[in-house]
Amino acid sequence: MTYEPTALEAVRIVGGVGTGKTERLVERAADLALADGPRSVAAFCATPLAARAFAARLRERLGDAADDVLVTTPRAFALEVLDDNEARASTGRDPRLLTAVEEKFLLEDLKVSGIRPKRLREMLKFFYRSWTELADDDPDWLLPGEEAELHALLKESLGFMRAVIEPEAANLAVNHLRESEAARSAHRFAHVVVDDAHCLSRASQLLAELAASTSIAMAGDADACVRAFDSYPYAAGLDEFAERHPKARLVQLDACLRSKVTARAAENVLADPAFEGHALAASDGAEEGALAVLASDDPADEFERAAAHLADAARAGVPASHMAVAVPNDVWARNMVAALEARGLRAEALPARQPLGGDARILERCLPARVLTALNLVADPNDATAWRCWCGFGDHLLNSAAFASLRKQGLSLAEALAAVDSGAAPHAVGMQRVADARREGLELAARADGLSGRSLLDEITRLVSDGAETSAPSVVARLCLADGEADDAASMARRARERLTMPTLSDGDAVAVVPYDLAVGLSPDTLVIAGFVNGFIPCRDYFDTTVTTLDKQEKMHAADARRIYALVGKAERVLALSHFASTDLETAGALKLKIDRIRLRDGVRTCSIAPSDFLTAIVGEA
What we know:
Layout: E1 9-15, H1 21-36, E2 41-44, H2 48-62, E3 70-72, H3 74-81, H4 85-91, H5 100-110, H6 117-132, H7 146-161, H8 166-179, H9 181-186, E4 189-194, H10 202-210, E5 212-220, H11 237-244, E6 249-253, E7 255-256, H12 260-270, E8 281-282, E9 290-296, H13 299-315, E10 323-327, H14 330-342, E11 347-349, H15 367-379, H16 384-390, H17 400-407, H18 413-422, H19 431-448, H20 453-464, H21 474-480, H22 489-501, E12 511-515, E13 526-529, H23 550-568, E14 574-580, E15 582-584, H24 585-591, E16 597-601, E17 604-608, H25 614-619
Helix pairs in contact: 1-2, 3-8, 5-17, 6-8, 8-10, 12-23, 13-14, 15-16, 15-19, 15-20, 15-22, 21-22
C-alpha cells in the first residue's frame, strides 16, 4: 500500500502573469515560519534562479531566519531524497545526475539494441515523459516486445552507471517516499509552498506534496506553462491538485499588479486563439510604465542599442540588479554581456545549455570533458559513470559493444572493470581499449592524488593531454573553482556537476541575461527581450510547410504564444522589444533565421530578417 498525501490543508492560488502569486506564497511562507519555526517550512520553485529570487524576497521579511527555510527545486530535493542508504539499495543508483556529455554515452549504449536512431530517440522521449507523469504506476504501461525491451535496457544501463537521468529523478524520489515511511519522516516539513507549479512536471508536483505533513499551497498559471527546468511541465497538475484536495481553498487573482503597459502587452497576447478567450486586466492603482520597440539594422547594432537602453535606465536610477535581458541563445547572451559591460554595467549570463562541448569520439576534440571526467575519478575512484565515460572516449562507438558485454555479466561496473584488469572479462570488440583506458585512469588518479585547486586541474590536464596542454581549459576552471570555497577534488567535482545540471546566477548586483524560457522567478523593473525576430521565435521550421505540417504548426504556435505571454509578463515597469533587420547570409544560415529576401550590399549577400510575428500582437494599441 503506497502513501498518498490527500489529507493536507490545501490552498490553490491561480492567476495570470504578474497578479501576485509568488508574493502570496512568500507571505504565507513567512507567516508560517514565524508561527511554527522556519525549519517547518519548505518552498519549491521551478528553477534554481527562481529559488534564489524567492529566498531573497523571504529574507526581506524574515531576516537571517530565512536561512533556515528550505528554498529549493524539486530536482535538488529529489536527489536529497535519493541520497540515503535505503534509497541507494532500493533504486540501485547513486544520487548522481548525468550531465549532457554523460548522456551521450548512455545513448550510445542504448544503440546496441539495434533500433534505428530516430526511432530510439522517439521512444526515449516517450519513456521520459511517462516517467515525469508517473505512468509507470500502471504495471501495463509498456507494450510487450521492442518497447518493454528497450525500457529494460535503459534502466539496466542507468543502473550499471549508478546514475540518474533528469526526467527520472522526481519519479524515483516519489516512489521511494511512497513506499518508505522512514524516508517520509526524514524528508518532511509541516508546511510546503510550491511556486510556478505549471512549469513543474507531474512527478515534481507530487514530490512537493509528499514533503508536506500539515499544509500545502500551490500557485500557478496554466497559460504560462513553458519548459523551463523540468523536461515536461504539467499544466494539468493545477486541476489534479484540486481533485486530490477537494476541500482546497481557492485564491483567484485577477488583476495584474505590474505596469499598465505590461498588463496590456500580456492581455494582447492572451487574445490569441491558443488561450481560448482568457483575459487579464491591470490593477486600478498600477502606474503606466513604458513600452519600447528597439529596431536595429543588424545584430551588432542591436546589441549596442539594447545596452544603451539599459544604460539610460541606469542613469535614471534603476539598479543593474533590477534589469534583465531575455535572449534566444548563447550567442546573443555573450554579445549582450559584452555590450553591457562596455557601457559600464555589470552583467551575468545564465547558459541556455551546458557549456561542455566537443566530440567524445575524437580525443583532441573533447579535452574539457576528459579533464572533468578524470577529476571525477580522482574525487571518487568508484564513480561508475566516470569510469564508463573515461573508458569510452576516443572510440567511434564509445566502446559500447565492450560495455554491453560487461553489463551482461550481472556484475557492478567496478566489478566488471576489475575482471577486465584480471583478464577474466569476456572477449568483445573494444575490450582491450577498455583495459588500456582503465589502467591509464588508475595511473592518472594516483599521480594527481594529494593535489588541489588550480594545481590539480592543471596536472590532470597535463596528464590527459600527454603534456600538450599544461593549463586547465578555461571552461573547466570556471566550473570547478570558487573563491573562498573548498578546492579538493571532491568539492570541485561536486561544484562542477551542480553548475552543469542546476545553473543559476551568482552576482545578485548584475544585469541578468537569461534565455527566453528561464526568466521564471524574475520580476525586473526593466526587461529587454532581445533577438525578437522570425527564426528565433517562431523558429525557422515553423515557416517551412515542407518540414512542418499544419497540425504541428498550430501546436508550435500555441507553445510560442505561451512562451511570449510568460515572458512579457515579467516586466514590472518597462518592457522593450529589440529586433534587427538584416545580417549576412552565412550568419543567417548558422543562426537558422527565417530569410525574407537576399540582396547584395557592398558585395556581401545580405538577408532581410523580419521582426517576430508576435511583435504586432504584443504591441497592439500601445
